[in-house]
Amino acid sequence: MPVSPVFNPQDALRFLPEIILTVMGTLLMVLDPLIHKRSSYAFGHLSLLALAGALGASVYAYTIGGPAFGGLLMVDGFATFFRVLVIVVGMLTILPSYRFLAQQNAETSEYHALLLFSIAGQCLMAASNDLIMVFIGLEISSIASYILAGYLRDDKRCNESALKYFLLGSFATAFFLYGVALIYGATGSVNLLLVRRAVLHQAGDPILAVAAALMFVGLAFKVSAAPFQIWAPDVYQGAPTPVSAFLSAGPKAAAFAIFLRIFITAFDPIGNRWEPVVWTCALASMCIGNFAALLQTNIKRMLAYSSIAHAGYVLVALTAHSDTGTAAAMFYLASYAFMNVGAFTAVTVLTGKGERFQSIDDFKGLGRKQPLAAALFTIFLLSLIGVPLTGGFFGKFYIFKAALDSHLIWLTVLGLLNSAVAAYYYLRILVVMYMHEPGEAAESAEPLSPGLRIALLVPALGTLVLGIFPTWVLEFAGKSSAIVK
Q1: Where are the domains of the chain?
Q2: CB 124 within 8 A of CB 140
Q3: Residue 66 near residue 129, CB atoms below 8 Å
Q4: Which spans in 407-470 are helix H?
Q5: Which DSSP string do the residues of 47-106 spell out, in sequence order?
Q6: Which pLDDT belongs to residue 59?
Q7: How far apart are alpha carbons 141 and 120 in whole angstroms?
Q8: How confident is the model at residue 263 (pLDDT cuts 50, 70, 90)?
Q9: Sign of the four-CA dihedral 402, 334, 194, 169
Q10: What are 152-202's pLDDT values in tens digits?
């Protein structure tokens, strides 16, 4: 009887994006002492090259699709969507980092290596079909992110953000791991499909409910959903601005990917139990995020609370517990990545050396001194509000439509009211930029570098394309959402 080979070359091809990112991240550290400091931009170029290669590898892996390494990974449309998304977020993070790192006189090789390792972990999370692989990907992404949050070692704010992120993140990861242990004890497996079959036959087992609750706590922390959001404002405010942009989009998208895979796949048979919890968490996230953002004067902290509110909108789609809701969440995360990374990138235009200018009032007169940056920032803010012809509008439209289709009327009404509240603090920035005389920050702002210009234009273009031509992305998301069950 023939024995199947231990190693299948196609498994390596399905895993190729992670291989490229890991190899290049290691290579950057090896090259650090060999490349002269005046050529430090080379590390950014190599990182972009690696991400471009990983992007192509993700698309190629989708064409051959299927399980890899005995079912530990599943390369399908769902995994490919999130792989592409986090890789694009990585590219958009590197572009403004060129000038930022030069302004702060920071080392570049470790920064880009950590960024690549974090993205590799997120890609692994998106493709995981096994809870142990999810945990490994989560740890790879998280450890690199903790270090990135405190990358400017001489800045006390960075040190504080990294320490808080590490301590609270470690607790959240422990909750998740305890949940995985209980799942294994109750079902005898950590494969999501096998866990689903076991749950179908023992849906009344209280251990399953405890395991689901523990895993929910761990994942809710990673997506900064209430009541586990307390870390986000401090970390986003203290971390380097490009890192804040990255943390608000990349890790959050990957965490929602495994959120959807686990709760729509493994725990789908007991969905009626966890739906009230997600409902409450979604509403709390929207209310806490939006009403706390009203009181903020620091723009990074305001965007952090905004991020919490947007996690609530995505949880509305998860509460819908349907293929339509899953597709809406995927589309919204794509739109959110563009508009939020773009918004944080616009903040880097003014922050300056030492990130002195972070107040909302520092943006006074930006429309006169930097009209292009102000105009693009306006697009991102309007999309965050949900104005028509932007990706944010259709993202919210599809999420609330999915909620109505699932008869979540009160959650939809309260979500729409929260969107109206959010309009106030976003529009306040527009008033400051266009209706006030230029302040010190706007007067001293440097001209846009080529990298920063591209980092603003590409997200703005993506935001508008998703708002004007949403069909292709939504259709792909809809087709991909059906396979996670």
Answers
A1: 9-484
A2: yes
A3: no
A4: 409-434, 440-444, 450-468
A5: HHHHHHHHHHHHHHHHHH-EEETTTTEEESHHHHHHHHHHHHHHHHHHHHHHHHHHHTT-
A6: 94
A7: 7
A8: confident
A9: negative
A10: 888 888 888 889 899 988 888 999 999 999 999 888 888 888 888 888 887
